Amino acid sequence: MTTLRKADIDKLDELLGRAERIVISTHLHPDGDAVGSAVAMMHYLEEKRGKAPAVVINDPMPESIAFLDCPGILIASQDAAGATALIAAADLIVSLDYNDFSRAGDAVCEALRASGAAKVLIDHHLNPSAGDFGLCFSETEISSASELLYHILMKMPDVDGDASRLPLSAATALMTGMTTDTNNFANSVFPSTLEMASALLAAGVDRDAIIMHVYNSFRENRVKAMGYLLDRKLRILDNGVAYMVLSGGETADMDIRDGETEGFVNIPLTIGRVKMSVFLRQDDGYFRVSVRSRRGTSANRFAAAFFHGGGHEQAAGGRLYIPDDVADADGAALYIERAAARFMENDSLRNN
Ligand SMILES: [Mn+2]
Q: How far is the CA of 144 from the centre of ligand 1 (A)?
């Protein structure tokens, strides 16, 4: 990562000290990094600064992350009026793990944009909407928003480079977010990432417990759905693009919950000839699209060109709208095959 600027750290320190009504915001369909960074910020502000921040997230957190100690998170899709009121009353908004307010979800996006509060971005995605934030910590050469937040908090005067001064609940949340965004140290690992892991372990974080909760506490439905998808739905095209489409009917039949397909998109990339893997899951009115790629093929550009999305070079996401883009799961499969053909033939589009 690049060096954090002292002027930015001082500004954040001052904003956190002054603020009385802080709202912490992260992206919709939150993953471990979204929840981990938000919960870590919450515990830091409570325990080190004596604040009472509100955490507003569009959707409930995945069950595998629910072990993080996080009482009182407001779920905006279930209480849009409450979320909007909190945001309207805020004097400071801290946005974590997204690059644009639209990623916070429809329930709160406009309220966030309209708010006159001071706004801070702490994120690791490409192309941040920096103009929407008074203070912007944006770093892409880093594992996760949780890691970026870790390095920022370590510079705060009340932590002063000593990870043992972080509340253990915050340290645990940061380790969790970094662990899930690196796919348990399989990708996006930088020297700074291992320094963070080392310092947090030394500070008493129980990594074994995190691994048990995050990777070894699933329902059997998830494992059976994985088997079904790999056996019956995986298609590998000659151009090296693999894809799986999970329809709404299949999701209902197998009783697959939100968050239980997390990580499925990575599995086809373990096959040598697969250059890029695409996973689609039908949601209300659209397919949720996840893209992962090997170096040399840009998941970010594929998601941006064909799925109204983006993210990181090797990990991105987007949507296919029903019926504007595709009619159903079969249409989505055809759409991917055509998009993959155009994309993989075009070297200037494909390469990163
Ligand atoms: Mn992230």
A: 5
